[in-house]
Amino acid sequence: MELENCSFPDNLLYDLEGNTWVTSDENEVTVGVTSLLSAIAGKFTSVRIRPTGTRVERGRSLGTLESLKFVGPIPSPLAGIISLVNGDVVKRPKLMNDASYTEGWIVRLRPLSFQEERGFLSRPSEARKDFKKKITDFHARCFKAFPDHEMYEIGTECSAVLVRLNELLSTTLVGDVVHLVTDDPASYVEMVRWTDQTGQELVDWRQEGNLFHFIVRKEW
């Protein structure tokens, strides 16, 4: 299921209060955070996870997340024993932004009361209204690629905006993603021309009122 460009895979179960997901296996589940939490919290900068073998109760902390806008616990959607920790997200927390439902998983857990606690979890179709309300309440924006950098260029002509974008890209790593916001009405045409000329990738774009949002990935 996709709502306002935020994805919620149909094969997963969701803890709405904790903004976490689990796979539906009674023997061992994988746990991660939703793309919605990623959009609300912003770029994750640190994650601390309890070690393998730790027993946690439902709602108690699996670890701690930090982002540019958020610091808080990762509430466990189920009671269980941590069987595996994803060391990749500890080394590179932004994996949870870039690949919330795949490489960005957090722990594997051996559930202790899966059948009893299954009722606290929801399928996407059951949670549609709750997800939509959260997206609205938090003004959450999900894009096809999560930005590493933000550029807000309001009241600036597109030619000057593109000069600044080129300057920013000259200092970033290949693969970095920039979220550019502008109110220039000619910006879409100019951005398409710019991508053709530079070879950089326009990953996503949308218009909200008089504002244009562009997601650009550095290709070289």
In short:
The protein has 220 residues and is α+β, with helices and mostly antiparallel strands. It has helices spanning 35-41, 87-91, 95-98, 114-117, 124-137, 158-169, 187-198, and strands at residues 2-3, 6-7, 12-15, 20-23, 29-33, 44-49, 55-56, 61-67, 71-75, 80-85, 107-111, 149-153, 177-182, 201-208, 211-217.
Features:
alpha+beta, elongated, six-stranded antiparallel beta sheet, four-stranded mixed beta sheet, 34% strand, 7 helices, OB fold (Dihydrolipoamide Acetyltransferase, E2P), 2 domains, 220 residues, Translation Initiation Factor IF3
Identify the overall geometry.
Answer: elongated
Number of helices: 7
In what order do the strands lie side by side in the largest sheet?
3-4-5-11-10-7
Level-1 CATH class name of the largest domain = Mainly Beta
End-to-end distance = 33 Å
Question: Would you tell me the structural class of the helices and strands?
Answer: alpha+beta
In total, how many beta strands?
Answer: 15
Hey, roughly how much beta strand do the residues contain? 25-35%
Number of domains: 2
Give a written overview of the molecule:
This protein is α+β, with helices and mostly antiparallel strands and 220 residues long. The protein folds into two domains: 2-137, RNA polymerase II/Efflux pump adaptor protein, barrel-sandwich hybrid domain (OB fold (Dihydrolipoamide Acetyltransferase, E2P)), CATH 2.40.50; 149-217, Translation Initiation Factor IF3, CATH 3.30.110. Helix content is 26%, strand content 34%. It contains seven helices and 15 strands. The strands form four sheets. The chain has a six-stranded antiparallel β-sheet with strand order 3-4-5-11-10-7. It has a four-stranded mixed β-sheet with strand order 12-13-15-14, with helices on one face. α6 links the parallel β12 and β13 (177-182). The mean pLDDT is 95.
